[in-house]
Design goal:
This protein has about 170 residues and is mainly beta. It has two helices and 13 strands; from the N terminus they run ββββαββββββαβββ.
Length: about 170
């Protein structure tokens, strides 16, 4: 989706749990996934191997990393989006209900999810997730970024969107 603001065109990746992250939807085939992200440049395709038992399609758009995992029946089962490096400010937003996941403090994103009635599992504050939707976030990074009083990055560094049964597999 493209919208405009004061700076000009702005790309938006809208998280749509548990359906995917446009332009990639859960259940797509490898060919459909490659076609969906090819407008950004040639994606990398990593076939399943001895280390990883699923195919992976990896692409990047203006500093935002994008990966689709094709597991069961060689169909997309999860999409992971990585935020930009700290020194980058891409013209991209990764949105969950209008909140920019990589620019809004992580605690605000989790509070929003709780207000929606979603159960937030925060047993590991570095990797909270919302079962049943499925949304999983990470706050791990080796970069020098602003951190809260517990030493965690203030903002999420990645987000995964998958189907409701993803954590069961």
């Amino acid at each position: 989706m493209i919208s405009t603001d004061q700076k000009g065109p702005l790309m938006q990746f809208v998280l749509d749990p548990p359906r995917g992250v446009a332009p990639v939807r859960l259940g797509m085939t490898l060919d459909e996934t490659v076609a969906a992200v090819s407008a950004w440049g040639a994606p990398r395709v990593y076939p399943a191997d001895a280390v990883r038992d699923f195919d992976l399609v990896s692409a990047e758009y203006d500093g935002i990393g994008f990966q689709a995992a094709l597991e069961r029946d060689h169909l997309v089962t999860a999409v992971t989006v990585w935020g930009p490096d700290e020194d980058e400010d891409p013209d991209v937003q990764v949105l969950l209900d209008g909140l920019d996941v990589f620019r809004t403090p992580a605690d605000e994103i989790l509070a929003h999810a709780a207000r929606k009635g979603w159960h937030v599992n925060n047993d590991d504050p570095r990797a909270p997730y919302i079962p049943g939707v499925t949304l999983a976030f990470t706050r791990d990074t080796s970069q020098e970024v602003p951190r809260n009083e517990n030493g965690l990055p203030i903002h999420f560094t990645s987000v995964l969107v998958a189907d409701e049964k993803y954590r069961e597999n």
